[in-house]
């Protein structure tokens, strides 16, 4: 059996689909029920979402001011559950094209906190690393939750339990970024973390890339 990998991660950015609504409607739970669809007469993508655990009047109101939403309609309406068909604007930022280009597969996607949780399947470890790099380049906050390998020598690990060999400086950078909430949706910016460490934002970016590269090598070590 060929070895492959599954990663669970949280991503967040103000322009990801429905982010303004997620951050406005407390406790709402949204799951993606379709791949993004496009039609010749629509400039943006169309998706179906399952929505629960909210005041639907508040949810509908939030959609009206959500800059990632162009049009919307309720296609199924139950007492505590609705399915929405949402037409997104061109301003909505999707990572699914990059996911497809990298040969990754979305197993599930749902809201968590103020962002989106993704469960991805990858045929090899490098492609997950490439997706992380893409998110960093697009200023999308990326937090790795769990990593699994399938096939021979299968294992599961979480980011918090991996033994990774970091230099003292890298540990200081990682601790400071975590303490200041750099990986949280409303946490410190790269400039703020860099200022705290008395380094430039570009140097901080270099440190973080090297730290994450070590994490991926350790967790995906053959």
UniProtKB/TrEMBL annotation:
<dbReference type="Pfam" id="PF04967">
    <property type="entry name" value="HTH_10"/>
</dbReference>
<protein>
    <submittedName>
        <fullName>Helix-turn-helix domain-containing protein</fullName>
    </submittedName>
</protein>
<dbReference type="InterPro" id="IPR036388">
    <property type="entry name" value="WH-like_DNA-bd_sf"/>
</dbReference>
<dbReference type="InterPro" id="IPR000792">
    <property type="entry name" value="Tscrpt_reg_LuxR_C"/>
</dbReference>
<feature type="domain" description="HTH luxR-type">
    <location>
        <begin position="187"/>
        <end position="214"/>
    </location>
</feature>
<dbReference type="InterPro" id="IPR016032">
    <property type="entry name" value="Sig_transdc_resp-reg_C-effctor"/>
</dbReference>
<dbReference type="GO" id="GO:0006355">
    <property type="term" value="P:regulation of DNA-templated transcription"/>
</dbReference>
<dbReference type="InterPro" id="IPR007050">
    <property type="entry name" value="HTH_bacterioopsin"/>
</dbReference>
<dbReference type="GO" id="GO:0003677">
    <property type="term" value="F:DNA binding"/>
</dbReference>
<keyword id="KW-0804">Transcription</keyword>
<keyword id="KW-0805">Transcription regulation</keyword>
